[in-house]
Amino acid sequence: MIVRKSNIQTFHASTEHPLPIILDGDPGHDDAIAWVLVRSRPEFRILCVTSVCGNQTIEKTTYNAGRIMALLGMDVPLAMGLAKPLFRDPIIADTVHGKTGLDGPELPEPACQPVACSAAELMAKCLEESEEPVVIVPTGPLTNVASLLLLYPELKSKIRHISLMGGGIARGNWTPAAEFNILVDPDAAKIVFESGIPITMASLDVTERALVYPEDFERIRCVGNQVASVVAGWLEFFYHFHQSLGYPGAPVHDAVAVTALLRPDILSGRDLYVQIETTGEFCRGATVGDLNRVSGKPANAYCLMDINRDAFVDLLVDAVAYYG
Ligand code: BDR
Ligand code: CA
To answer: Model confidence over 221-254: pLDDT tens digits?
Structure first.
């Protein structure tokens, strides 16, 4: 694998100086596994969690976020995101994540209720209070992050980096051209990609290579603690849908956005100028990457393209072992 160095301001989280981060997602099996990874690592200091509507309705993704936080012992504030994308009706992915948005193993009930402010307000509070710039990891549609930028433009400088799951330079998964997270709220994605904030983009180009195979589920289950057995159950459920489409394993998309901060050495990518198609007959929600540099515009995203799958699986196994 050729590792190309990015010119976008990227960095490596370190144990000496934990990175303050905000988790914004629509859990969702792969969001949940991404959060299992974050919570297991001393390189991160989680400031808050915010839910977004995507895989399921905002009520369900918020409830799921609370259940995951209870499972992982994540004692930080949780805020509910907007009930709809910025200017459009919601689209849900119940075919992939089930009726609850997180079907499969039983989970504990949330240990606490969401705070009484919006996701954008909670993010703004955390940014204001943080002494150092913060990394945001969005693993759902970008509705909350765009709202934050629209409502609090003065806080942009407090966002060090956005490491997101979304888009696909070469392909889509919800339409031929569009990936789910970007398709659901392309207007929000446009705001984020045009913000000037350094972005790492874990798109389908890389996440469909982040496959966890059935034999890996067993390796994870054999770790033998509660989180390990739940993660193995989530993977099984998630794989079921993908297997019907011919995938040899479960693509754990959202965990790649976290891996980018922890193990850039197992990923490769390239800097690209990426535009978001917000209209268009066939391509709404597409992330149009300037592969041949014909736009003359500077890159606005470091687009991940490949991953060392075995090392990614090892990272997930180590993550669940933390909960022993
Ligand atoms: C993305 O869509 C959701 O179903 C997953 O959680 C992931 O964030 C993949 O297209
Ligand atoms: Ca997600």
So the answer is: 999 999 999 999 999 999 999 999 999 999 999 9
Is the beta carbon of 55 within 6 A of some atom in ligand 1? Answer: yes
Atom number of ligand 1 nearest to Cα 31 = 6
Classify residue 7: in a domain, yes or no.
no
Closest atom, ligand 1, to C-alpha of 28: 6
181 lines ligand 1 (CB under 6 A): yes
Whether 10 maps to a domain, the answer reads: no
In whole angstroms, how far apart are CA 299 and each of 7, 274, 294? Answer: 9, 7, 12
259 CB contacts (<8 Å, ≥6 apart)?
37, 202, 210, 266, 267, 307, 312, 315
Give me the domain span that covers residue 114. 19-322
Active site residue 29: no
For ligand 1, is residue 180 a contact (CB within 6 Å)?
Answer: yes
Residue 238 maps to which CATH number? Answer: 3.90.245.10
- What pLDDT is attached to residue 5? 66
Whether 6 is in a domain gets the answer: no
Determine if ligand 1 sits within 6 Å of the CB of residue 253.
yes
Q: How many residues does the chain have?
A: 324
How many structural domains does the chain have? 1
Residue nearest to atom 10 of ligand 1 (CA): 180
pTM: 0.97
Local structure of 149: helix, strand or coil: helix
Q: Look at residue 94 and tell me if it is in a domain.
A: yes
